[in-house]
């Protein structure tokens, strides 16, 4: 029997980057893109390498492009980290695993390096496949913390819970990363919101942005840990805006939600450096009458639009700067 599992891209609608600082966020799943894992029983455990895992290139420029998009180690390291954390969890919780091996392969249609959580999707899909193969039940609220541990503890990836929560729960989720709760249990409070309450949303990304060699440096973590007043105030306002956004969604107050999405990005600009390419995305979308903020760490934006006329303007204007516009499938 072949086990197939999936995990989808995600977009932060409100609150990020406060999720890494005991804040609050609202995120949606983006079913337009996903990572998939296939797993089946075999005599030995084998991780099938994909193109990004092979050390074969057409020339030096192909190598540079590959490293820019997928890093030096490809995606198989994500599979290894997921397997290790899965086994550790089972051992710690006295769950016996059957004496069976498997072959596992993965693939992903999630565009790389544009803030749609491609790496965590691979880990999440792997966790789901392992649970099914070994017939192990891991509580849903635990899965995001386990996925984060695989990336952060095993691979040193600087990440937070938000991406892993929405990829585990799917749909639309309000998250409260209360400090006391996180430190005590390793997880926050997660509340599902009905995706049917959401206004018309769009996502846009530059098709060549993932190939940028330069990265904008930010020192938010250091300023946060030093107690910088401006940083703490901005992060606090991001969390507060998420609470207001939750109420706006529940009440279908889309004018307020529109303002909060824009304000999220404006607050981010106060504490983080924004590249010219990313700024161009946001400014172009806003000139069309749409709201705009990053979906994650940068590279793609999300916002709402009031009618099809605005959507058409978005498609035309963003195409001029080599950006693609999609309507996210949330359910």
Secondary-structure map with pairings?
Blueprint: E1 2-14, E2 24-42, E3 46-47, H1 60-70, H2 76-92, E4 101-108, H3 118-134, H4 143-155, H5 162-169, E5 172-176, H6 179-185, E6 189-193, E7 201-206, H7 220-225, H8 229-250, H9 254-271, H10 276-287, E8 293-294, E9 300-304, H11 308-319, E10 323-326
Parallel strand pairs: 3-4
Antiparallel strand pairs: 1-2, 2-4, 2-5, 5-6, 7-9, 7-10, 8-9
Task: Give your account of this protein's structure.
One of its GO terms (molecular function) is kinase activity. The protein is of the alpha+beta class and 331 residues long. The chain has two domains: 2-195, 2-Layer Sandwich (Ribosomal Protein S5, domain 2), CATH 3.30.230; 197-326, GHMP kinase, C-terminal domain (Alpha-Beta Plaits). 43% of the residues lie in helices and 21% in strands. The chain has eleven helices and ten strands.
């Amino acid at each position: 029997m072949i086990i197939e599992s999936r995990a989808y891209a995600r977009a932060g609608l409100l609150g990020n980057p406060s999720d890494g600082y005991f804040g609050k966020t609202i995120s949606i799943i983006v079913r337009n893109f996903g990572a998939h894992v296939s797993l089946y029983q075999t005599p030995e455990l084998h991780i099938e390498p994909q193109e990004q895992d092979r050390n074969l290139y057409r020339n030096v420029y192909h190598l540079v492009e590959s490293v820019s998009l997928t890093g030096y180690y490809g995606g198989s390291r994500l599979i290894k980290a997921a397997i290790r954390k899965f086994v550790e969890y089972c051992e710690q919780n006295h769950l016996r695993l059957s004496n069976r091996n498997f072959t596992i392969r993965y693939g992903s249609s999630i565009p790389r390096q544009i803030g749609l959580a491609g790496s965590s999707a691979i880990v999440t899909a792997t966790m789901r496949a392992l649970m099914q193969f070994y017939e192990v039940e891991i509580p849903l609220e635990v899965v995001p913390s386990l996925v984060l541990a695989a990336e952060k503890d095993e691979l040193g990836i600087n990440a937070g819970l938000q991406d892993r929560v929405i990829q585990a729960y799917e749909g639309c989720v309000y998250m409260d990363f209360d400090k006391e709760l996180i430190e005590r249990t390793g997880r926050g409070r997660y509340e599902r919101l009905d995706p049917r309450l959401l206004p018309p949303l769009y996502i846009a990304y530059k098709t060549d942005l993932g190939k940028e060699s330069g990265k904008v440096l930010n020192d938010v973590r250091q300023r946060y840990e030093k107690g910088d007043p401006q940083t703490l105030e901005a992060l606090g306002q991001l969390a507060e805006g998420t609470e207001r956004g939750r109420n706006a969604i529940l009440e279908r107050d889309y004018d307020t939600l529109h303002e909060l999405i824009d304000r999220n990005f404006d607050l981010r600009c106060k504490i983080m450096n924004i590249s010219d390419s990313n700024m161009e995305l946001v400014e172009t979308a806003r000139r069309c009458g749409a709201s705009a903020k990053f979906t994650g760490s940068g590279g793609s934006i999300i916002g709402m639009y009031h009618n099809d006329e605005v959507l058409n303007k978005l498609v035309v204007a963003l195409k001029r700067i080599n950006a693609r516009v999609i309507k996210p499938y949330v359910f």
